[in-house]
Amino acid sequence: MDYEAKLNRLNEIIAEISDLNAAGALLGWDQQVNMPAGGAEGRGYTLGTLGRLAHERFVSAEVGTLLDELEPYAAGLDPDSDTARTIKVLRRNYTKETKVPSEMVVEFAQTTTMAHGVWAKARHENDFASFQPMLEKLVDLRRRYAELFAPYTHVYDPLLDDFEPGLKTADVKQIFEALRPQQVELIKAIAGQPQVDASFLYQHYDEQKQWDFGVEVLTKIGYDWNRSRQDRAAHPFTTNFGNWDVRITTRFDQNYVGSALFSTLHEGGHAMYELGVDSKYNRTALAGGASLAVHESQSRMWENLVGRSLPFWEHFYPRLQEYFPEQLGNVPLESFYKGINRVEPSLIRVEADEATYNLHIMLRLEIEIALMEGKLAVKDLPEYWNARMQEYLGLTPPNDAKGVLQDVHWSGGMIGYFSTYALGNLVSGQFWEKINQDIPDLSEQIRQGKFEGLRGWLVEKVHQHGSKYEPQEMVQRVTGSKIDPAPYMRYLQDKYRKIYGLA
Amino acid sequence: MDYEAKLNRLNEIIAEISDLNAAGALLGWDQQVNMPAGGAEGRGYTLGTLGRLAHERFVSAEVGTLLDELEPYAAGLDPDSDTARTIKVLRRNYTKETKVPSEMVVEFAQTTTMAHGVWAKARHENDFASFQPMLEKLVDLRRRYAELFAPYTHVYDPLLDDFEPGLKTADVKQIFEALRPQQVELIKAIAGQPQVDASFLYQHYDEQKQWDFGVEVLTKIGYDWNRSRQDRAAHPFTTNFGNWDVRITTRFDQNYVGSALFSTLHEGGHAMYELGVDSKYNRTALAGGASLAVHESQSRMWENLVGRSLPFWEHFYPRLQEYFPEQLGNVPLESFYKGINRVEPSLIRVEADEATYNLHIMLRLEIEIALMEGKLAVKDLPEYWNARMQEYLGLTPPNDAKGVLQDVHWSGGMIGYFSTYALGNLVSGQFWEKINQDIPDLSEQIRQGKFEGLRGWLVEKVHQHGSKYEPQEMVQRVTGSKIDPAPYMRYLQDKYRKIYGLA
Q1: Torsions phi, psi of B467, nearest 5?
Q2: Shortest Cα distance from B31 to chain A (angstroms)?
Q3: Which of A349, B216, B241, B337 has the most crowded CB, counting CB atoms within 10 A?
Q4: Chain B residues with CB-CB distance to A224 below 8 A
Q5: For chain A, what is the mean pLDDT?
Q6: Catalytic residue status for A267
Q7: Band of the pLDDT at B220, cuts 50, 70, 90?
Q8: Where does residue A497 rank: exposed (0-12), middle (13-18), buried (19+ CB within 10 A)?
Q9: pTM for this entry
Q10: Choosing among A27, A45, A218, which should be mutated to test the B contact, i.e. which has the most B CBs within 10 A?
C-alpha cells in the first residue's frame, strides 16, 4: 500500500475543506463589517451551501477509508510527528461529525437561527418567559447530542470537548472549586479598602483619536499589518483565513476610553496567535489555535497581564496623554493605572474587571452542568441566577435582561463554551509566570516599548504549534503542569495588593 | 418520468453553483478592496477551490443527464417561459464547458496568471518585445479554444459568443463598418471648430467632498443602499451576489473632478441593472444581465446620456458648486456642460470622450480578428496599432505603453471582449431614443431631479428579465430592431452640433 499517496490524498481533501471554511469565514466577517442589510438572505444561502459542502466532504466514506488505512501506518510513527497528530485530530473529528445524524444538524441549525431572534427580543423586552421554550428545546437538543457520545463519564463532557479537546468536566469542576473561594476572598478584601477613582476614563474621547492610538499600540506590540487589518463592527471579534490574512474588529465608545482600547488589545492577542502559527499548517488539520481556552489565554494576556500592567503604561501613557491632553493631562500615571484596574462587582460579564470576571463564568458553568444533568429546570433559571449572583458578587440583577438573558451564547446552542473564558485567564497566569522566569527583565523590556522578546517567546512556545497539541498537553509542555489556578491567583493577589493596599 | 422532480434537482444544483460563484465574487471583491497584501497566496487557493468545485459540479454527468431528460419536456413549453429559457441557457453553457478539456482550462489559467505580471512589467518598462511571446501563446490558446467549436462561420465567433451570446462576428463587422466613417467624419467636423475650455475640471478637488457629492447623486438617481455599497479601489468595478447585495468601487483623482464622478455613475449604472433583476432569478441560470454589451448600455447611459446631459446638470450643478465654490463658483453651467463634453482625440481608451471612444474599440476588434484569422502576427502589432491610430484619430503613440500595451484585457486572455464596450454605446443610444418616445417629458423630469420614470422604464423593459434573453433578442424586444448604430450617431451628432456649433 502506498501510504504517501493516501496521505497526500487525505491532505488534499482537508485543504479543500479548509478552503471552503476560509471562504465561509470571509463571508461571515463581511456580514458583520460590510454587508448591506438586504444581503442577509443571499448570504444565508451562500454560507449554508459552503458549510454543507465542507461537512459532506469531511464525513464522506473516502475520508473514513483513508483514515482506516492510514492509522496502522501512523501508529508506527513518532506520536508527536505532524503526520501522527494529523491522523489523530482527523480521527477524533471524523468520529464526532459522523456520529451526528444530519437531521440533528439541520434541526440544531434551524433552532439556533430562530432562537437568536427570540432571545434578542426577550432580552430587549426583559421577558425570560418568551425565551424559555426555545432554551428548553436547545437544552434538549444538546442532551440528545451528548447521548450520541455515550458512554461518557459526565453528560457535559461531550459538549466541553467540542471547545476544549480532551478536557473533562471533572477537571474543570476541580479547578473552579479550588479557585472560587480565593476569588471571593480577594473581592471581599478589596471591598474593605478605599475605592480608586476611574471617573476620568468616562469623558468624551474622540473616536478617530482612539482609533489612531489603538493602531499605534498594535503596531508597536508587533501586529503584522502585511497580513492583517482592523475594522469597526458592532461586536469585536477576530477571524482568519490561514496565517495569511487575520482580521480584528473593534467598537468604540466615545464616552469611555477603555472600551476600544482593551478590546483592541484582546482581539490583537487572538490575532497574533493565528499570525504566529507555522505556515506549514496552512490548509491542514493542524491549523489554528489549540483550543478556545488557549486562544483566550493569548487575548487575555495582551488585554490584561500586559495591557493593564504598570510597565506597559509607563511606556504608552505619555502618548495617550498627547492624544487626549484635556482628558488626561492632569491625571498622573499612577492614578490612570489604578483607574484601569478598578475592581467593582457588576452585573454584566463583558464589563467585569479581572478580579470578578471568573465568578461570572463559574455561575454559568454551574448552570450549564445542572441543566445537562437535569437537576435544574430552565424555568427556574432566573431565580437560580439571581441567588448565585447575590452569593458570589453581592448583587441581585434588577431584571433578567441584566441577569440570565445577558449573553448571546445559549441562544446559539453554545453550551460548553463559557468555561473557556475563565480557563483562558488561568492559562494566561501560568504562561505569564513562566515567561517571567525565562525573560527576567520582561518588565523592563515592556517599559521600554520592546515586545519582541515576549512575542518571540509566545510564538516559539505556543503559537507556532497550531492545534497540534490538546490544551492540557500544551499547558503541560510549556509550564510543566496542567491547567492550574494558582499562578493566576498569585498574579491577581500581587496586583491588587499594590493597587488597593491589601495586607 | 417526473419532470418536476428533475427540474427541481437541476435548479438545486444550479443554486449550489451560484452560491459557490457568489462566494468567489465576494472573495474577488475583498481582494481588491480589503485584503492585506500577505493574503494573496491563501486567497489564490480559496478561489481556485471554489472555481474548481463550481466547474466540476456543472460539467458533471448528472447535469448532462438531467438536461437530456428535460429537453423533450421543455420543447413542449412556451419557448419564452422561464423553464424553457433555463434549459436553453444551461444546454448552451453545458455544451461549451464540457467541450473544453480540463488541461486546457488549467493551461489557460496558468498562462493568464503569468501573463498579467509580464504585461504589467512590459507596460511599465515600455517593452513590447518582452510581452510578445506571452501574447503569442495566448493567441494560440484562444485559437485552439475556438477550434473546439468547429465548424464555425468565423474563427472569432466562439470567442465573441462567450461575452455576447448569439452574436456573430459578421454582425459586429457590419455594425462597425457602418459606424466608422460617421464617427471619423464627426471628429473631423469637431476638429474644425473652436475648442471648448475644460481647464476648470483640472484643479484640486477634495476627495471627501467628491465622495460625498457622488453619494448624493447615487442616492438621488435611486441607488438602493439597503442592497448595495460603495468603496474605494484601485480600479472601478461592480460586483454582485444575486440582487441582494450589489457593490461598486470608485477611485479618486484629487486633480480632476470628472474621474470619480463619471466612473461612479458608470458603475452605478451596472449596479442598478443587477439590483433591478427580478428576485425570482436569484440563484438560477437566468440571474445577472443579458450580456456585457447590454450591461455596458446601462453603465454608459447613466455615465453619458444621462450624466453628461444638460438637464442632469441643470439639476445637480448648483449642488456641485456648493461643494466646490472656489473651483466652480465662477464657472457658468453652460461652460461646465461644454467642459465635461469636450472632444479631443487621445491615446488612451479609458480616458476617451464619447465621440472618439468607439474608434479605440474598432481598432482593437480589427486587431483581434486579424490575429485570430492568422492575418496579423503578434510581432507586427505595434506597427499596426500605430498606423491605425494615425488613420482614425490622427495621433501616433510616442511609445507602446501609450499604445498597444495600454489595456489589461489581452494579458487575461480576454480576446472577444472589447467590442462589447462599443456595442454598449450603440445599445444605449437605441434605448435612449425609445425611452424618450415613451416618456416625452424625460428631460424635464431629469431637470427636476426625478429619476423614477427613467429607472422604472429600465427595470420594466430591461433589468427585470435578467439573462433570459440574448442581447440581440433583448434589443429587438425593447426597440423593435437589432443592434443598430444609427440612434447613437444621431445622439452624438445632435449633442455636438449644439456644443461645437456644427452645421
Answers
A1: -105, 30
A2: 11
A3: B241
A4: 38
A5: 96
A6: yes
A7: very high
A8: middle
A9: 0.94
A10: A45
